Amino acid sequence: MVIRDDCLNALKKMEGESIDMVYLDPPFFTQKEQHLKDSDGREYTFSDRWESRESYLRFMRLRLEEIKRVLKKNGSIFLHCDDSASHYLRLIMDEVFGENHFRSEIIWTYKRWSNSRKGLIPGHQTIFYYTKTANFKFNTIYNAYSPTTNIDQILQERVRDTYGKASYKYDDEGNVVLAREKKGVPMSDVWEIPFLNPKAKERTGYPTQKPVELLERIIRISTDPGDCVLDPFCGSGTTLVAAKLLGRNYVGIDSNPSAVRLCGQRLECPAKTESRLLKVGIDSYKTKTEEELALLNTLGCDVVQRNKGIDGILKTYYRNAPVAVKIQKKHESLQEAADLLCRAGNKKRCSFLVLVRTSRSAGDQEAAVPANMIVMDSPELLLENELSNQCSLYGVKSAQML
Ligand SMILES: C[S@@+](CC[C@H](N)C(=O)[O-])C[C@H]1O[C@@H](n2cnc3c(N)ncnc32)[C@H](O)[C@@H]1O
Hints:
This protein is α/β, with parallel strands linked by helices. It has helices at 7-13, 53-70, 86-97, 151-155, 212-222, 238-245, 257-268, 276-280, 290-299, 334-347, 379-401, and strands spanning 2-4, 19-24, 32-37, 43-48, 71-81, 102-109, 124-131, 142-143, 158-160, 166-168, 185-186, 190-192, 228-231, 249-254, 301-303, 312-314, 323-327, 352-357, 373-377.
């Protein structure tokens, strides 16, 4: 169900203790007009401008009190905010739900392109997780062990001495004591989930839309199938989509008619973008060998992954333009490598191109390279060349003796 209303009115009409979990992503007190267009040119806006911080906090407190009333005794609330007002909101949450019912401060972190702002780039938002009582529903999610975990950490029982120092447990005969079967590492409160990219299937064009993946995690840890999830500031309906995909019931509220319309459309065909980054991990984006990385580092390059023609860009621009670097691959002739670099470098309007030759072959003499391309031998090739010159100068025998 999706309701179009101020959530305070809608919440007041709801039955007490009827909801298992509430997620809210309200205006953050950015003092901005939030505005975005979708791919068909439809505009979505909502206001995050306030007379004062006090008026914003009053608005939030009233709604949080109503949310507490509709939550079941074993229910949970997740309040999404950012550093515009998170420090004030946490105090209000303590007052409304009780300090002792604070469970976690979840950090949603993501990579951001650098901007020109002076200072640190904002790379996270905060989700305050509270429960209505101490008797709350929680489903642990387990993650895979990190690559630094060794087999003993997975299999062996550990004990703590009187100083709290942990060590592996052995029985009286000195044999290792096996731990109970483990399911992995319980999920932490820092969640790295990519922001929706402009081409993501689930992207609607609604400002501040959150990823379904983020809501799925929240719903999974705090509810079971058939439970009821409420989002009183549902926007484009991300929470409702995640709830539907996971077999939970849902109630969404938003005062913006275009948001409610959008929710209806999204719920007809709920979609989630599979994040390649989450599925296969960051390592699958790395296409360079250790040797290539060392070489690019020596040349002073920023490494470029997943590009056929360019492996690195020099940190220093020449003639106000980037300089592209490519390392010849084992299977490439010098001409093939030069063509790939030329094509990619021209596209990126590079002033110079640097091709690092890694092997010598008979056809190299005929290779045609443009005037702005510098072909240099890799250190291994230079050394090999120097040694074979020495061998021919002094004869193989003396070279071997040296
Ligand atoms: C940050 S957005 C929510 C975005 C949403 N989580 C998503 O993924 O699309 C906040 C929403 O709160 C709505 N809103 C603002 N004041 C409201 C109020 N008093 N009652 C209900 N909705 C309100 C806005 O229209 C906006 O859609």
